[in-house]
Specification:
Helix content: 10-25%
Number of strands: 11
Radius of gyration: 16 Å
Strand order of the largest sheet: 5-4-6-9-10
Distance between the termini: 23 Å
Order of helices and strands: EEEHHEEEEEEEE
Structural class: alpha+beta
Largest sheet: 5 strands, antiparallel
Length: about 200
């Protein structure tokens, strides 16, 4: 299961607690395939799960037909940097809410706070996802949510999906997601596909 969202569809929120949803065929079914044709130079957002031995891995990668503009490339580099900083910072003992606050702090430092995990509040009130990841395992969304205000203590052995993303209203979504094993030394990636944007 997952989402494949192209261009402006990537910025359409859904009924789920998620930064993305897509337009779908219409308001009667606001998820799933829509009528938008993928255009050259727009971000294609691929957020899909994999499964092995009954366990789920969650991953987001970016694609495009032709090269993305500097605007999108810079935004993607910033989300890769947020992810890299979290890989170095998240350790057992911190809380799930700490992870969100760290991610928001990093996104703010990089100049992307207003679009981090959803459109600006003044554009779409209440549409920002208050999380930057979640536990994953036998189910796609498991405890703990890496969410603002939560205080679950992270423990070695937890499997976590970390997903820093940007939503640009009217234009699309861009970001990255990987699944990690939390070890005493930090986050160890369990998903290995190349993180570079795939251009065709």
């Amino acid at each position: 299961m997952g989402q494949l969202l192209a261009g402006p569809s990537g910025a359409v929120p859904s009924f789920m607690n998620s930064p993305t949803g897509g337009s779908g065929p219409g308001p009667w079914s606001p998820v799933g395939a829509g009528a938008h044709k993928i255009q050259r130079g727009e971000p294609v957002f691929l957020d899909y799960t994999g499964e092995w031995g009954g366990y789920i891995a969650d991953q987001t990668r970016m694609l495009s037909i032709g090269r993305l503009s500097a605007f999108w490339l810079e935004a993607y580099v910033a989300m890769r940097e947020v992810q890299a900083r979290l890989e170095r910072s998240v350790t057992p003992g911190i809380t799930s809410g700490d992870v969100f606050e760290m991610a928001l702090h990093y996104a703010t430092e990089l100049g992307y706070a207003s679009h981090f995990m959803g459109p600006p509040e003044e554009v779409s009130p209440g549409q920002k996802a208050p999380f930057v990841g979640h536990g994953v395992g036998l189910e796609l969304d498991e405890w703990p949510p890496l969410q603002r205000g939560t205080d679950a203590r992270l423990e070695s052995g937890m499997v976590l999906a970390v997903e820093p993303k940007l939503i640009i209203e009217g234009k699309g979504a861009i970001g990255v997601e990987d699944t990690y094993l939390l070890t005493p030394g930090g986050l160890e990636p369990l998903t290995f596909s190349a993180r570079e944007i795939v251009e065709v």
